[in-house]
Amino acid sequence: MERSCIICGVAANSREHVFPAALGGRRTNKGIYCDTHNGEYSELANIIVNQMRFFNSQIGVVGDHQKTTGEVKPVLLIDPVTKTEMWLNNTSTAFAEPRITSVTLNPEGDSAIEIAANSLQQLDTYVAALREKGLDVHVKSKGTPGIYYPGTLEGRLDLGGSDTGLRAIAYIAQTFLAQAFPDLARLPELAPLKEYTLNNSGKDFACWLSPSDGGHDSESKRFNHRIIVGHNADDNVIYARISLFGAFHYGVYLGVAEAGSSRSVVFDIDPLVKHPPLDMQKTEYDKAVGYSPRPENLTEYLAAAIKNGEAKASVDGLMRNIQDFQRESLATKWLQELERAKPTDRETANSFFERLVSSESGWILKLIKHFRRNFSQAMANSKNKDITKILHYYSENSELEPSSFDGLSDYGRTLLAISSAALIEKLTDDFFSGELDQDRMEMLLSGGQGLYTVGRVIQDEASLKVLGYAISDEVW
Ligand SMILES: [Zn+2]
After folding, report:
1. pTM (two decimals)
2. Alpha carbon of 269 to ligand 1 centroid (Å)
3. N or C: which end of the chain has fewer CB within 10 A?
């Protein structure tokens, strides 16, 4: 019915993603903004997209504009030890720039440098740029492909906490209101909101909220976004409640207007579904679902949540969900491949699992780190002299060496090799004894079974070095 731009009233015909495309919004609406205003809001939409990019990239959300390529947009993080910048998504890690791993000065006066790059193509571009600068560069050899294991990478999270972030949240609320209630979105009472979203004039439209105890944020799917827009007839407030990834909750107070009885619409968006109709569920109510009156002080909750740790707990909880999800997905994928390969003898099974384990060796490295950390913490107060020696050995030897070609130390490479071999054996055993189901596979990837399996060989390596014998039989 209404086809006028909600800002200026001219014919609206800009095909606008109701929820930002990059966050997994799949639905468009041509009746909300004119081309000019759609364009003017694109920067604001990008702000929230950038703030959520880390989570999107780890969950593996494919933006609506990347549907044909299936690309999961990566996020730029930095290794604080080497200052190396890396692009990271759910399946890959890549150097932002080729990395020089060693420089050797030759007696002739020239020098040999070793460079690690994502691809020969990236290396060629890099070398071409050096030549452009007038350097005389010759490529002597082009090494072999390998994996680089980054240490802890750091980035900065904003989460709509800034003023601009909240303005972007208000913009999402405004667009959904226009989608669900075209009449409300065009009320003159909403002019101040539009001034705020468009021109950043005025304030106090949006804020962080605590998780709702009414269950209005609860999601059946882990990473769903929930957008509620509505009108509460008791105080005439037109409101929105926005939950991103089921972890970050915002309230938006769009305006006050007499607009009939209470009504609301709940949109549940699953960013992992790439096509309608299952990407979004819409439920209409004749009451104000999820409404909570506007707090006296809009920054009060966020300030308290930062102080009492609730905000950090939300991020940590989401990170745990992401880890679980990645582990489940990998276990499922491995089982599917196993189903296709159907190895019938030990040798074939072994080489099958060897291929899987080496393709995902980052998981094995996580198990190794996890085991060493757990053991060191659990035994920190041990009076046993042998244990003390092993703990000392662990603290003296890091599995990482960020400046090396693969990010590992010699010790790390040894641990990775023996741990992978132990896991491959274990996977083969479990497969032939019929125990290798989804649960077991997940436990081997990052649960107790996996820790036990790699822990045994890590302990033996250490005890052989410092005590002269393998202690696994005694300790386990
Ligand atoms: Zn317009």
Report:
1. 0.88
2. 27
3. N
How far from 290 is each of 226, 249, 387, 426, CA to CA, in Å?
Answer: 11, 11, 55, 49
24 phi/psi in degrees, rounded to 5: 105, 15
Share of the chain above pLDDT 90, in %: 68
User: Domain spans of the chain?
Assistant: 80-157, 159-305, 310-475
Centre of ligand 1 from the C-alpha of residue 65, in Å: 24
Report the separation in Å between the CA atom of 166 and the middle of ligand 1, taken as the mean of its atom positions: 22
What the block records as the tokens of 373 is 């950390």
In sequence order, what are the residues at sequence separation of 6 or more whose Cβ sits closer than 8 angstroms to the Cβ of residue 444? 423, 426, 427, 430, 450, 453
Q: How far is the CA of 24 from the centre of ligand 1 (A)?
A: 25
pLDDT (0 to 100) of residue 476: 47
Kindly give the distance from the C-alpha atom of residue 267 to the centroid of ligand 1, in angstroms, as a whole number: 25
- The rounded Å distance from CA 399 to ligand 1 centre is 58
CA of 133 to the centre of ligand 1 (A): 49
